Amino acid sequence: MRASKPHHLKTNDKTAIVTMMMTKSETTNQQHSLAQMRASLTGQIKGRGCLAVTGDEAEAFLNDLLTLDITTLAPETVASAALLTPQGRILFDLLISLITHDRHGFRLECDLDRRDDLLKKLRLYRLRRAVDFTATDEHIHVALNTGEAKDKGYKDLRFADHSICRYYTAGHADNDHEGEADHSAYRAYRYRHVIPEGQAELPSEKALPLEAGLDKHGAVSFDKGCFIGQEVTARTRYRGLLKRRYTAFAALAAITYPADIRADDRLVGEVLGCTKDGDGWIGLANIRIDALSSGQPLIVESQQIIPITADESTT
């Protein structure tokens, strides 16, 4: 039996779908009370863990390794950073914050099932430097930075408007991933801002920091000097060698990910995440720039996905 061909949406149809989803989401937000909005974006993040890096040389040690200029990190903020391979691919994606006022203590947040590997890698690079590492039992929470929560947590600098903050509370790290579905609102919010997080969305030794937009989130410094993978990353930027970029997209049905994205039967990208958003679905994908600019329909599992521009995704 002949397989049915995917239905290609016309330009007006694509615009209508994106507008419908964005408008419906905005309307829903306006209809909910502020307390309900906070509740939908508040909760413990499952499957994440923390590592404390302390000592007189902690700041210099991390600054030599990570993409972020650690010396610019302000108290009560959490910033994105990455430890790259020498070939410039993401080995560990991290969220980093200060835990001491003297800048001798830092918290590294990552996927919990990657923490032991991160600890081994840091110990390998330590050599004789005055730095210690401690896996900490902390619960990680996310909240909308409004009302009572405003200015009390660590402002998440990945969000340009500082609309999200994170909290770290004492407790035993939880490796149970079953609660992740409860954070679909947070995932949808991240996707709207094209902010990837974790191994599923930033595959180790595969994802490139500039494709993922980490530089746009302040996670990559091109001024501080050397870090692991710096030469390749800088060359990619200055020579305009970027071929793909992370993009938010709208869909009318759920997508099992990871999934291939095709345009005119040519492989042009990969779906990295997808979650419910109002009456539709929103996702995150890594897509070839030439495919995005061509206007060709992007097909996943026989349905067309609609890329959402930065202006559309953050309104």
Notable characteristics:
315 residues; alpha+beta; 2 domains; 9-stranded mixed sheet; 15 strands; globular; disordered N terminus
What does this molecule look like?
This protein is α+β, with helices and mostly antiparallel strands. It has two domains: 92 residues, Beta Barrel (Elongation Factor Tu (Ef-tu), domain 3), CATH 2.40.30; 196 residues, Probable tRNA modification gtpase trme, domain 1 (Gyrase A, domain 2, 2-Layer Sandwich), CATH 3.30.1360.120. 24% of the residues lie in helices and 31% in strands. It is built from eight helices and 15 strands. A nine-stranded mixed beta sheet has the order 1-7-9-8-3-4-5-2-6. The chain has a six-stranded antiparallel beta sheet with strand order 11-12-13-10-15-14. β4 and β5 form a beta hairpin. The N terminus is likely disordered.
C-alpha Rg (nearest Å): 20 Å
Secondary-structure element series:
HHEEHEEEHEEEEHHEEEEHEEH
CATH topology of the largest domain: Gyrase A, domain 2
Poorly predicted runs of 5 or more residues: 1-7, 23-34, 173-182
The overall strand count is 15
**Sheet with the most strands: spatial strand order:** 1-7-9-8-3-4-5-2-6
Helix content: 10-25%
Shape: globular
Mean pLDDT: 85
Distance between the termini: 44 Å
Structural class: alpha+beta
Taken as a percent bin, the fraction of beta residues is: 25-35%
Largest sheet: 9 strands, mixed
CATH homologous group name of the largest domain: Probable tRNA modification gtpase trme, domain 1
Could you say how many structural domains there are in total? 2
